[in-house]
Amino acid sequence: MKPIFILNGPNLNRLGKREPEIYGTTTLAEIETMCWEAAGQRPIRFHQSNAEHQLVDWIHEAIDEGVGIVINPAGLSFRSIPILDALKMFSGPIIELHISNIHRREEIYHHSLVSKVATAVLAGLGPKGYRVAVQSLVEMTAA
Ligand code: DHK
């Protein structure tokens, strides 16, 4: 069964301690556990990197092997043409996820390039947004 790729961008490895008033105190490891539980029988590949090129490489893997993508590009949401270009090649559903409501934050966070190719965008649900995103992709990709 083809996996769902869950890809996380820069600084998300610091969740739990990073600006808890914005991102909460849930760690990325705890979020990964939530994703495995939400995916049920569907396998997942859960990754995080602070490097743009690594995220592009994982999107290429998803193009070749995956059924859907959940991506929190973090700060790369707003400036990364390489990530946008890679996602354009993916034929399955893409859910863009932000823990915070980026539209209620500073202007620099308001215009995500990834939203131009995302099937859906989740922003502001906190860490539980990952569970909602994975459950949605499981339903969207059910045989
Ligand atoms: C995470 C980040 O690191 C920020 O750069 C984004 C996003 C918001 C989030 O809410 O998950 O702007």
Walkthrough of the structure:
β3 (68-72), α4 (81-88) and β4 form a beta-alpha-beta unit. This protein has one domain: Rossmann fold. The longest helix is centred in the middle third of the chain and has 14 residues, at 52-65. Helix content is 36%, strand content 17%. With 143 residues, the protein is of the alpha/beta class. The protein contains 5 helices and 5 strands. α2 packs parallel to α5 (128-140) and α3 (52-65) packs parallel to α4. It starts with a strand and ends with a helix. A 5-stranded parallel β-sheet has the order 2-1-3-4-5, with helices on both faces. Bound molecules: 3-dehydroshikimate. 3-dehydroshikimate binds at residues 11, 72, 74-75, 98-100, 102, 109.
Bound molecules: 3-dehydroshikimate
In what order do the strands lie side by side in the largest sheet? Answer: 2-1-3-4-5
Beta-strand residue fraction: 15-25%
Q: How many structurally independent domains?
A: 1
The arrangement of helices and strands along the chain is: EHHEHEHEEH
Briefly note the CATH topology name.
Rossmann fold
Average pLDDT score? 98
Distance separating the two termini? 10 Å
Global Rg: 14 Å
Poorly predicted residue ranges: none
Q: How is the main sheet built? A: 5 strands, parallel
CATH architecture designation: 3-Layer(aba) Sandwich
Q: By helix and strand content, what is the structural category?
A: alpha/beta
What is the class in the CATH system? Alpha Beta
CATH superfamily membership, which one?
Dehydroquinase, class II
